[in-house]
Specification:
About 45% of the residues lie in helices and about 15% in strands. It is of the alpha/beta class.
Length: about 375
């Protein structure tokens, strides 16, 4: 079987969930599958598994706006691809292939990609591309049941039978849990999107008693230096600048260290398709405070402290309760470690490969009749 993959999320210049999905899915497919051939289509040169059955096809540079739209159909036909997988639903609208699988991470463009949505043409392009890619796909793969339900409502159940949930995992770098004593710091994470809710985290932190702030600085992981500077400005506005520490564009190894050394991870996102950082923190033994609805609640289960993400009072009380209650902290840490073990990128890869085989075999059977 020859599998083509539109791996454009790999070209994202900053850390994000879709990039992690692309990197870790390909890495784990390579580990479990030495038989099938994988052709990875990208618009820029990126790293892919260094394995004989994995090959990179870089699309031509001319016509930069349309290069993916125009050239993927050409190369898919040239390569005689059996199964084609879009790792996000903004693929080529000109690709006509009977065996397209598309992964859907989330659906609210205005919340997930505000920098796109503020430009009408970009928003229209994304909406149109997504709609046509959904229509051309034989299977839609969602990363959570929350996204699956949203997708079902969007499509009016037209593709309900063709939709399958395959959970994400978390990178092996976050599996090295260390029982570190005297942990300190309140850790949070944000980027350019308002949905990460960092403004409320900062406000909630400012309301904590001075004895907690003096012992536990606010550690903010920012996807870019620009976002980090914005967070520092906001911290100064709330008069907690001296307690704030910003870590911009850091490696997974450094992030794992922060999870391991921090007392609690605060992730009250307003919207997620999955929420990989929840699992990363749990795997490092860092208790999680997250939102009481949507994918955050689905992934966290009963192993996190759930709060109303729109209430700074709720967020602040949750952090204070964990800091001041060692038994609660230990409970969340222990259950979080157990919960994280239920997810892995290897499981994601195996279920994805099962889907490839199912689609390929069903088509083959149909052709033989």
């Amino acid at each position: 079987m020859k599998i083509g993959i539109d791996a454009n999320p790999l070209t994202t210049p900053f850390p994000c969930g879709t990039k992690s999905y692309a990197q870790d899915l390909l890495e784990n497919l390579a580990r479990i599958d030495k038989k099938n051939e994988y052709v990875i289509f990208v618009t820029k040169k990126v790293e892919i598994p260094n394995q004989k059955n994995f090959r990179l096809v870089k699309l031509p540079n001319f016509f930069p706006i349309l290069k993916k739209q125009l050239f993927i159909p050409y190369f898919v036909k040239k390569e005689k691809i059996d199964i084609f997988h879009n790792l996000e639903p903004y693929g080529s609208i000109f690709l006509n292939h009977p065996k397209i699988i598309t992964t859907v991470h989330d659906l609210r463009l205005d919340t997930t990609y505000p920098f796109l949505s503020k430009y009408l043409l970009n928003r229209l392009y994304c909406e149109l591309a997504r709609k046509l890619v959904f229509k051309k796909s034989i299977k839609l793969l969602t990363v959570s049941n929350t996204t699956k339900k949203e997708l079902s409502r969007l499509l009016n159940n037209k593709k309900d039978l063709e939709t399958k949930t395959v959970y994400n995992g978390y990178n092996n770098k976050f599996m090295n849990y260390k029982n570190i004593k005297n942990k300190n710091g309140i850790l949070c994470m944000g980027d350019f999107a308002i949905r990460k809710n960092i403004s409320r985290v900062i406000e909630a932190y400012s309301a904590l008693p001075s004895k907690i702030k003096n012992k536990h600085p606010l550690k903010i992981v920012a996807s870019t230096q620009r976002a980090g500077n914005d967070f520092l400005t906001l911290a100064n506005k709330h008069k907690i600048g001296k307690y704030a520490r910003v870590y911009a564009a850091i490696s997974d190894t450094r992030l794992a260290q922060l999870y391991n050394h921090s007392l609690v991870f605060v992730y009250p996102s307003l919207y997620e398709g999955f929420g990989i950082p929840i699992l990363e923190a749990m795997a490092c033994g860092c208790p999680v405070v997250t939102s009481n609805y949507g994918a955050m609640k689905e992934i966290a289960g009963d192993s996190s402290y759930l709060v109303n993400p729109k209430s700074t009072v709720d967020i602040s009380k949750a952090v204070q309760n964990i800091v001041e209650n060692p038994r609660l902290l230990e409970y969340l840490k222990r259950n979080g470690l157990k919960r994280a073990k239920m997810f892995s990128w290897e499981k994601t890869a195996r279920k994805t490969l099962e889907l490839y085989n199912k689609v390929y075999n069903s088509i083959q059977e149909h052709s033989a009749i």
